[in-house]
Automatic annotation (TrEMBL):
Coiled coil: none annotated. This is MFS transporter. One of its GO terms (molecular function) is transmembrane transporter activity. Residues 242-428 form the Major facilitator superfamily (MFS) profile domain. It holds the Pfam family MFS_1. The lineage of its organism: Bacteria, Bacillati, Actinomycetota, Actinomycetes, Kitasatosporales. One of its GO terms (cellular component) is plasma membrane.
């Protein structure tokens, strides 16, 4: 990392006439804590439904057409997330509210996301589930964009690995807590959708009260050109090749991970023959095992990354581990095999989560557009969930149906491709 993000940002800011960002001071543990809680709250609202709650809602409404209905809902929702994250990030980067640039969008995102979950909870038709999930994805991505933008605003490069590792724990812990709630509240479709969202909303409050937020004077905000607004989904990979290669590597890792998470419930029911009660139990148990290993791996891997000043070796290790997990999923024919594979998924993603935030933040083209550019980077994590719903039905249909080995073989391949994709990144 010979060229710092701050230096690059200062140069870009000078060209655009925007204020050059000030040098970032080390952040205290309390700063990281309130960010962790906010991100945990966001993931409670959006990850838990995508993992199990929406699938159960769809199955209870339309058991025979559940795969197609779930693919439609999750696929369209992922497309909405793809657009919403960078768009709300762009707006957040230019928000001049006296409450800060990030807080207003956190409030809007939380309330809008809860409204979307309520639509799903009380839906009586598939189209209502689709509309509700698109609303939830739209607004929860406004929340996520604001949280990541605040992180990029404040954390210096030398703390990014540690901060990334800690914040990355929000994802597995929210998944673990949320799937436990779903298992406990399984009798009520309304509860499995709304309770995780309400708990998540409460966890946003500490940041709103105590978190640092960037305040921008109106005079400091450059005029938004039409070209810039229309290009909010784009950061030029030719002009910023480190950003482009980091994006591609992240896309491949998350595509592999999406093959496991998107169809886990149906893998357990249709391939391993588990009934509905057992499915919710084993989704929780698999998440528990995976997340124990994620927790064990993430922070140490982040500290190692900071110590050696490199992110790429961590990505290499994570990609190989995730590919191994995909191989285990492909050959598993029992719940025991599934649980062993989840342990390896946990180790691989735990290592990867240590740099999943740090690497993109290292290669940001312009700190004054941090939330927008991180939103573009987050497309690499959301687009896979849309694409996998298009790819998976064809793979599953091979050889007569329920061909989950083919799906996980695909996941293995794309995980390994993440290694050559990250090699050209120079600033990490």
């Amino acid at each position: 990392m010979s060229t710092t993000t701050d230096d690059a940002a200062a140069g870009a800011a000078a060209k655009e006439g925007a204020p050059a960002p000030v040098a970032k001071e080390p952040v205290p543990g309390s700063f990281i804590l309130v960010h962790f809680l906010a991100l945990f709250g966001a993931w409670m609202g959006v990850l838990v439904p995508s993992l199990v709650s929406v699938a159960l809602k769809v199955e209870r409404m339309n058991a025979t057409g559940k795969v197609g209905a779930l693919s439609l809902a999750l696929g369209l929702g992922a497309l909405v997330a793809l657009v919403a994250n960078p768009l709300f990030g762009l707006f957040s980067d230019r928000t001049t509210s006296r409450f800060g640039a990030r807080r207003p969008w956190m409030v809007i995102g939380t309330l809008g996301g809860l409204a979307g979950l309520a639509v799903i909870a009380y839906a009586s038709a598939t189209w209502q589930v689709v509309v509700g999930w698109c609303l939830a994805q739209c607004f929860y991505n406004a929340l996520v964009a604001a949280v990541y933008g605040a992180l990029a605003d404040q954390v210096p490069e030398r703390q990014l690995g540690f901060a990334s590792g800690v914040l990355a724990l929000a994802n597995p812990l929210a998944t673990l807590g949320g799937t436990y709630l779903v298992d406990a509240l399984n009798a009520s479709t309304v509860a499995i959708l709304l309770v995780p969202g309400l708990i998540g909303a409460a966890l946003i409050v500490p940041f709103l009260l105590y978190g640092r937020d960037r305040r921008i004077a109106r005079a400091q905000v450059p005029a938004m050109r039409a070209r810039e607004l229309l290009g909010f989904l784009w950061t030029n990979p030719v002009r910023f090749p480190d950003f482009g290669w980091a994006w591609l590597s992240r896309f491949l890792m998350w595509t592999s991970y999406a093959t496991v998470t998107t169809y886990m419930a149906y893998y357990l029911s249709d391939y391993l023959g588990q009934d509905e009660d057992s499915v919710t139990h084993y989704v929780f148990l698999g998440s528990l095992i995976a997340n124990v290993f994620i927790l064990a791996a993430t922070v140490p891997a982040g500290r190692i990354s900071d110590r050696i000043g490199r992110r790429k070796p961590v990505v290499f290790a994570a990609a190989v581990l995730l590919a191994a997990a995909m191989g285990l999923m492909a050959v598993a024919h029992s719940v025991t095999g599934f649980l062993v594979a989840q342990a390896v998924v946990g180790i691989g993603m735990g290592v990867y989560f240590a740099v999943d935030i740090a690497l993109p933040t290292d290669v940001l083209p312009d700190a004054n557009n941090a939330a927008k550019d991180l939103g573009v980077m987050n497309i690499a994590a959301t687009l896979p969930y849309s694409l996998i719903t298009l790819i998976a039905p064809g793979l599953l249909a091979l050889g007569g149906g329920d061909n989950y080995p083919a799906l996980f073989a695909f996941g293995l391949l794309v995980a390994l491709l993440a290694v050559p994709a990250v090699l050209p990144v120079r600033r990490s």
